Automatic annotation (TrEMBL), chain A:
Subcellular compartments: Mitochondrion inner membrane
Domain of life per record: Eukaryota
Record organism: Mesembrinibis cayennensis
Protein's gene: Ndufb4
InterPro entries membership: NADH_UbQ_OxRdtase_NDUFB4_su
Function, as annotated: Accessory subunit of the mitochondrial membrane respiratory chain NADH dehydrogenase (Complex I), that is believed not to be involved in catalysis. Complex I functions in the transfer of electrons from NADH to the respiratory chain. The immediate electron acceptor for the enzyme is believed to be ubiquinone.
Protein's UniProt name: NADH dehydrogenase [ubiquinone] 1 beta subcomplex subunit 4
Signal sequence residues: none
Bilayer topology: Single-pass membrane protein
TM stretches of this protein: 82-100
TrEMBL record, chain B:
UniProt GO cellular component terms: mitochondrial inner membrane
Subcellular location: Mitochondrion inner membrane
InterPro entries recorded: NDUFB8, Ndufb8_metazoa
Entry protein name: NADH dehydrogenase [ubiquinone] 1 beta subcomplex subunit 8, mitochondrial
Highest rank taxon of the organism: Eukaryota
Membrane topology classification: Single-pass membrane protein
Annotated gene: Ndufb8
Subunit structure: Complex I is composed of 45 different subunits.
Family per record: Belongs to the complex I NDUFB8 subunit family.
Database matches in Pfam families: NDUF_B8
Major location (coarse): mitochondrion
């Protein structure tokens, strides 16, 4: 079972799940502390006798902001981004221009030579 | 709505203090916080979390949102809406990935090669031209009913 890009390793084969050293244990304890603090905040808001109408999740708001409004200010034209932009924005236009042009030219040549059979249309 | 500017994501962090502040903002440890590489793609200082779908999260833990297996305030993956339990699943497969890929490619290539060979070298039972009754359908094809039709025999004795 080799590691790959699409699927994670099972817990039995992943060396990060066993061989816990004191540093790993301390890291886990710190993560647990953060998680407990967040859970406490959430439960306080949830069990409030006068609960607010909507309990906003700051993580969700940050996620939405980062994906929508934070993209333009942090965007920077680099060689990689401008190449990818040209490929995905201008590439398809040029491709379809070439396809339609060659198709039309071929049909035009056949009509000029008289070999083109007009397709039957009901309308 | 009610959140100040310094609680929202910002530009890529340059100095160590900016990184520490960003880790605190996202409720992560400073050692865990790793922003996306600064390639100008528009990620900013959003953390790069491991690419694991929500299928892998513990089903028996009491999450704040059980259907999403996500806690309140926990930093969400950039591709969160891709990794939900209705969509992409990155949990470990029973068969190793490379074995699956190898089997699939072998089967696909075998089938494609056989179909291609069948197109190039077709083989079927011998056939002859179709035979029509009534003197090769003389009247149906618009022949003159007053004239004698040409006699057509399809057999040899």
């Amino acid at each position: 079972y080799r590691p790959n890009r699409y699927v994670s390793l099972p817990a039995e084969l992943d060396p990060e799940t066993y061989d816990s050293s004191p540093e790993k244990r301390r890291a886990e304890a710190e993560r647990l502390a953060i998680r407990a603090r967040l859970k406490r905040q959430y439960q306080l808001q949830l069990n409030n006798p006068n609960p607010p109408a909507v309990i906003e999740d700051p993580a969700l708001l940050r996620w939405a902001y980062a994906r929508t409004q934070n993209v333009y200010p942090t965007f920077r034209p680099t060689p990689k981004t401008s190449f990818l932009g040209a490929l995905f924005a201008i590439g398809p236009i040029l491709f379809w221009i070439a396809v339609f042009k060659t198709d039309r030219d071929r049909k035009e040549k056949l009509i000029q030579e008289g070999k083109y059979k007009r397709p039957f249309s009901v309308f | 709505s009610g959140m100040s500017k310094d609680l929202m994501p910002g530009p890529y962090p340059r100095t160590a203090e900016e990184r520490a502040a960003a880790a605190k903002k996202y409720n992560m440890r400073v050692e865990d916080y790793e922003p996306y590489p600064d390639d100008g793609f528009g990620y900013g200082d959003y953390p790069k979390l491991p690419d694991k779908s929500f299928h892998e999260r513990d089903p028996w833990y009491q999450w704040d949102q059980p259907d999403m297996r996500h806690n309140w305030g926990e930093p969400m993956h950039w591709d969160f809406d891709m990794y939900i339990r209705n969509r992409v699943d990155t949990s470990p497969t029973p068969v190793p990935w490379h074995t699956m890929r190898k089997h699939f490619l072998v089967f696909l290539s075998t089938m494609l090669i056989m179909f291609g060979l069948g197109e190039i070298y077709p083989s079927y039972r011998p056939v002859g031209p179709k035979q029509y009754p009534f003197n090769d359908l003389y009247l149906e094809k618009g022949g003159d009913p007053n004239k004698e039709p040409p006699v057509v025999t399809h057999y040899e004795i």
